[in-house]
Design goal:
GO terms for molecular function: DNA-directed RNA polymerase activity; sigma factor activity; transcription cis-regulatory region binding. Belongs to the sigma-70 factor family. It comes from Selaginella moellendorffii. This is RNA polymerase sigma-70 domain-containing protein. This protein has 458 residues and is mainly alpha-helical. The protein has four domains: 118 residues, no CATH class; 153 residues, Four Helix Bundle (Hemerythrin (Met), subunit A) (Up-down Bundle), CATH 1.20.120; 76 residues, Arc Repressor Mutant, subunit A (Orthogonal Bundle); 85 residues, Arc Repressor Mutant, subunit A, CATH 1.10.10.10. It has 19 helices and no strands. Helix 2 crosses helix 7, helix 5 packs across helix 8 and helix 10 crosses helix 11. The longest helix is centred in the N-terminal third of the chain and has 29 residues. The N terminus is likely disordered.
């Protein structure tokens, strides 16, 4: 600020509040840089500088108040100082006569540059060089704006050329910047900003903001429509491994991956968008299958290895002219037998309906399931047989078996001899003898079949 011949008040917190005092003629020092100006010209120049600075500062203050920024005085001071710098730059670049037309033109250029920085492109033209209000933009919005259902059985859209892909992706760039501005505004305000606040924060008007959003959505929809054939092609490759996923579900997941590819695509890398999107589409499909396509949720690495096994099996079938053995597939993929069979076992679960017909019969699976009442009655009969068999033993033998195998509380679990002896106040040897004696008695009892099978299963 010193090189422009100005001096500002040193207390930043009161900068905006006292702008009328700050802009008073007494606050500025005219530095003539060796030029002798008469007093009347100096007064006229001071008034002109004060008027331009006040206009710039007022615009900055209105912008901050309209967007309701609550980032603290530091941010407000920064914006106000930027407005003053722009105003004095206008003074320094004006004509010798000090006409206000030169100031207005300079202000318009500064405003357009700030809008470009906020929106990622020119305020009057889209990123691909076309006008926001041109016939091409109108045709794009008319043909592709809005949600349209996709008929996966009848896809007729052609593939886009490389130049068309770049132009559509470049229309998405300013929209990304606008959404970043909205997210930052939402974080600062701690509420959802209005459209006017959003437009003010992006240094544009609401009409231009809405137009850019419409062009961005239309460009995204057109990219999706013309790449649906690619999504369908990749979905058919994963349909066999999709489990309970249908082909249409896989296509929907592929479209999500296509949208992710739009967010990450960089045209400057020299790669076509359709080629770049294949990775994101495949990743979205595989993750969806891994997450919900199986009865047991498997790690993502399992699904990737399963695809590798399937690919190796297909290649070996072509090379050998026959179906390869599991050992040959393991050798080709480099997996050990434990990994191979774990992947094969856990990735081949299939959900079946109880009303599905059993192969070779006309009966349903439901007819082969036992009745719940039969299970309950059978378990109660077994419990009665165990109680009856224990009653035929001596007291200490019965107590040892009940504590040793958890029969006293119904929790079937083996306890150690030391633990049983501590509970019954016996030595380990005495517990072992009573246990052996009780088991010997049960072997010769016909009524103790249920108890013997129960103890044998522990």
């Amino acid at each position: 600020m010193e090189r422009m011949g100005l001096w500002l008040h040193p207390s930043p917190p009161s900068f905006l509040e006292s702008r009328s005092k700050l802009l008073a003629p007494g606050r500025f020092l005219e530095v003539s840089n060796g030029l002798e100006l008469n007093q009347s010209k100096q007064r006229r120049r001071r008034r002109r500088v004060s008027k331009i600075a006040a206009a710039g500062l007022t615009r900055s203050s209105q912008s901050i108040e309209a967007a309701d920024y609550q980032a603290g005085p530091a941010r407000q001071i920064e914006n106000a100082v930027a407005a003053l710098e722009d105003a004095f730059n206008q003074v320094s670049t004006s004509g010798p006569d000090g006409s206000e037309e030169g100031f207005a033109k300079r202000g318009d250029r500064v405003s357009r540059k700030r809008t470009d920085r906020a929106t990622g492109g020119s305020s009057g033209t889209p990123s691909n060089g076309g006008d926001l209000w041109s016939d091409e933009s109108e045709e794009l919005i008319r043909s592709s704006f809005g949600v349209k259902p996709v008929d996966w059985g009848n896809l007729h859209h052609r593939y886009l050329t490389s130049q068309e892909e770049i132009e559509l992706v470049e229309l998405l760039t300013p929209v990304k910047h606008l959404h970043q501005v909205r997210s930052e505004l939402r974080r600062v305000l701690r509420r959802e900003p209005s459209d006017d606040e959003w437009a003010t924060a992006a240094n544009t008007d609401f009409r231009t903001l809405r137009r850019r959003l419409q062009l961005g959505e239309a460009a995204q929809n057109k990219l999706i429509e013309h790449n649906c054939r690619l999504v369908l092609f990749l979905a058919r490759r994963y349909e066999r491994d999709a489990g309970s996923f249908s082909l249409e579900d896989l296509c929907q997941e592929g479209v999500k991956g296509l949208i992710d590819a739009m967010d990450h695509f960089n045209p400057g890398k020299g790669t076509r968008f359709s080629t770049y999107a294949i990775f994101w589409i495949r990743t979205a499909m595989v993750r969806a299958i891994t997450r919900t396509g199986q009865v047991i949720r498997l790690p993502f690495s399992f699904a990737a290895k399963k695809v590798e096994i399937r690919k190796a099996r297909r290649e070996l079938r072509v090379e050998l002219g026959r179906n390869p053995s599991d050992e040959e597939v393991m050798e080709r993929t480099g997996l050990d037998p434990v990994q191979f069979w774990n992947i094969y076992y856990y990735s081949n679960f299939r959900v079946r309906s109880l009303n599905e017909t059993v192969r070779g019969t006309d009966e349903e699976f439901l007819e082969y399931l036992p009745e719940t009442g039969d299970i309950v009655s059978e378990s109660s009969e077994v419990r009665e047989e165990i109680v009856t068999a224990l009653q035929r033993l001596k007291d200490k033998e019965r107590m040892v078996l009940q504590h040793r195998y958890g029969l006293e509380d119904g929790a079937i679990a083996v306890k150690s001899l030391r633990e049983v002896g501590r509970r019954l106040n016996m030595s380990q040897e005495m517990v072992r003898r009573y246990e052996a004696s009780a088991l010997e008695r049960l072997r010769h009892q016909e009524e103790a079949k249920s108890l013997r099978s129960c103890l044998a299963s522990i």
